[in-house]
Design goal:
- Helices cover 4% and strands 43% of the residues.
- By secondary structure, it is mainly β.
- It has three domains: 194 residues, no CATH class; 66 residues; 99 residues, no CATH class.
- The strands form six sheets. Strands 21, 22, 23, 24, 25 and 26 form a six-stranded antiparallel sheet that branches.
- It is elongated, with a radius of gyration of 31 Å.
Length: 383
């Protein structure tokens, strides 16, 4: 095997070929015995022998890898042959040798952390109608580490004689972490090629507050863009980063967002919705009529469907439709004539609108007090 055949280098993430993940597919649930799944391995050293294997005619290139075992509370280092491994993700070394000392006191973590966080398992719960019960498989999830020193490799032979490329780590971070297995603080040295920086953005926790509203993201509709408004529901800490659960006041969808995405967030302090437009108000008494709605405007309605289910919806009115008693489409002028002749009870009117609750898809809403219970203006202007 020539150097050009070596597909792995320091910092790359690999695993045994028995692992279900591949380089292009990591969104997989593991069933049955998830404990059989090997860890994601962080390469930090490459061994290129001078001689060829007499049986294969290739060089038995080996890689030293590191992973964290949550059952023992130890960073394990193991050697593997090239043909035992498969690539999961190519990585780059994040640290410059000239600035390593600047990271003392800062936080780092193994590069494999995100893949291990995404390790999920599923099994049938036979007591509950054979439903699939899902959970995370975290046997090899590494802990967050604090850098307490920088150490240089005492071995001066860091480069391959044949290729001139570095095959051994030159620098290590000395790290400390709380070892829950041993119920004490532990220390170890970790090659810098196997770890990445941790930026928790804790300063943003002083800016956002649970229960408050913020302009975050945009929603596009009919060539217009509106600022979305979200409520901060919960702030989570997931291993090494903060995650924020938000709920959109427009789509009512719940999403989970990394805290770092809130760096340029703006607090929303205005009133998003007007007072109730129906019933008694400062203008007197307002009935539910088609004239209440203006095309290309946003409204918040409380709507009861044919099954009696009541939902709050944000809608963007595209068209007002008029039908006679036989559900034949008529014009607005014909509708007005029927209304003037006091035959409007034989007319049916509908809103054709984009519904934010339904992925901004077109829906039809009957303009009838039995269906539309509440109407409010949405006090947002397009950008």
């Amino acid at each position: 095997m020539s150097q050009s055949d070596i597909t792995y280098k320091e910092g790359d993430l690999v695993t045994l070929k028995t692992h279900p993940f591949t380089e292009k597919s990591t969104d997989i649930f593991i069933q049955a015995k998830a404990e059989y799944t090997p860890p994601i391995l962080n390469i930090f050293e490459v061994l290129i022998p001078n001689e060829y294997n007499e049986e294969t005619g290739e060089k038995d290139i080996q890689y030293q890898c590191i992973y964290y075992n949550t059952k023992t509370g130890i960073f394990e280092k193991k050697w593997f042959k090239h043909n035992e491994l498969k690539l999961i993700k190519k990585e780059v070394i994040e640290f410059s040798e000239s600035s390593l000392i600047e990271h003392i006191g800062k936080q780092v973590i193994l590069k494999s952390v995100d893949l291990e966080l995404n390790m999920r398992k599923s099994h049938l719960d036979i007591d509950k109608n054979s439903a699939q019960k899902k959970s995370h498989h975290l046997d090899f999830l590494p802990p967050p580490l604090q850098v307490i020193g920088v150490e240089e490799n005492g071995d001066k032979k860091l480069f391959s004689k044949k290729t001139g490329k570095q095959v051994k780590p030159k620098y290590y971070f000395k790290v400390k972490w709380y070892n829950s297995i041993k119920d004490k603080f532990s220390e170890d040295i970790i090659p810098i090629s196997a770890i990445k920086k941790v930026e928790k953005n804790e300063n943003l926790l002083e800016i956002i507050k649970v229960g408050e509203y913020y302009s975050f993201g945009t929603i596009s509709i009919e060539k217009k863009e509106y600022n979305d408004v979200v409520e901060i529901k919960v702030i989570y800490f997931n291993t090494y980063f903060y995650q924020v659960e938000v709920k959109s006041l427009l789509t009512q969808k719940v999403d989970f967002i990394d805290l770092k995405q809130f760096e340029e967030i703006e607090k929303f302090e205005a009133e998003l919705f007007s007072n109730e437009l129906l019933g008694v108000n400062e203008l007197g008494y307002t009935r539910l009529e088609p004239v209440l709605f203006t095309l290309n405007n946003l409204y918040k309605i409380k709507y009861k469907d044919k099954f009696g289910r009541i939902t709050d919806r944000i809608i963007y009115v595209e068209e007002i439709l008029y039908f006679d008693e036989k559900y034949k489409k008529i014009s607005v002028n014909e509708y007005k004539q029927k209304k003037k002749a006091n035959t409007k009870d034989f007319c049916y009117t509908y809103l054709k609108a984009k519904c934010f609750l339904r992925n901004i898809e077109t829906r039809h809403f009957q303009i009838d007090p039995d269906h539309i219970i509440s109407v409010k203006n949405v006090e947002l202007q397009p950008k």
